[in-house]
TrEMBL record:
It comes from Vagococcus hydrophili. Gene3D superfamilies: 3.40.630.30. The keyword Transferase applies. Residues 1-102 form the N-acetyltransferase domain. Keywords: Transferase. The keyword Transferase applies. One of its GO terms (molecular function) is acyltransferase activity, transferring groups other than amino-acyl groups. This is GNAT family N-acetyltransferase.
Length: 109
């Protein structure tokens, strides 16, 4: 597992963890978070782009999020992540959905 701190100047404003398979062609991002006061400022989007750029061999990216957190589901959808169809009910009103984004020849599909 690789842990990354997301910094703005010298202040840590977020974090992410990345796990890749042995071949380095698949990776799972998570958890990932940005401090609330820095949300909706573009830092999360920029962090995701930089993370993906640091792992050019990865062709399949995976993550999961809470279905009921519409802000998060919209965020990942905007980045090209699609639901895999796998869901897990954690408790009442909390469902985890699994997302995937694929790259072929440098393009998200």
């Amino acid at each position: 597992m690789i842990s990354i701190f997301i910094k703005l100047k010298e202040e840590i404003i977020g974090y992410a963890c990345i796990v890749t398979n042995e071949e380095g062609t698949q990776a799972k991002i998570g958890p990932i978070g940005i401090l609330p006061q820095y949300e909706e400022c573009g830092y999360g989007t920029e962090a995701m782009k930089l993370i993906e750029k640091e792992f050019p061999a990865v062709k399949e990216w995976f993550l999961d999020t809470i279905l009921q957190e519409t802000k998060l589901t919209h965020f990942y959808s905007k980045l090209g992540y699609k639901q895999t169809g796998k869901v897990e009910s954690i408790q009442e009103n909390m469902t985890i959905i699994f997302l995937k984004r694929e790259w072929i020849d440098g393009c998200c599909i």
